[in-house]
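Researcher: Please predict.
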Amino acid sequence: MAKKIHIKKGDEVMVIAGASKGKKGKVLEVIVDKDRAIVENANLVSKHTKPNAANPQGGIIKKEASIHISNLMVIDPKTKQPSRIGRRLNDLGKLVRFAKKSGEELK
């Protein structure tokens, strides 16, 4: 059976634990098999790179590393606060995600 993950690519999330706690950002990628996600401007690590075509200078670049999804909460589109996520059938009979704080449906 497929895993049910409460976040999707493009969601606005807040980091609730770890070194980047309190930071908000957009989910750039979800790694389903490892239960991790990459969030913009959160969990930045320094990566040493050799000079190459894309980066002729080389050196140290800052890059986002993955965060476990248990450390992320989706931001409610109505209240702009972190909220838990539920699933329910909408008027068309389609299963949709909604923010439990306001009842607002997530896209």
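Model: Residues 98 and 104 are 5 Å apart (CA to CA).
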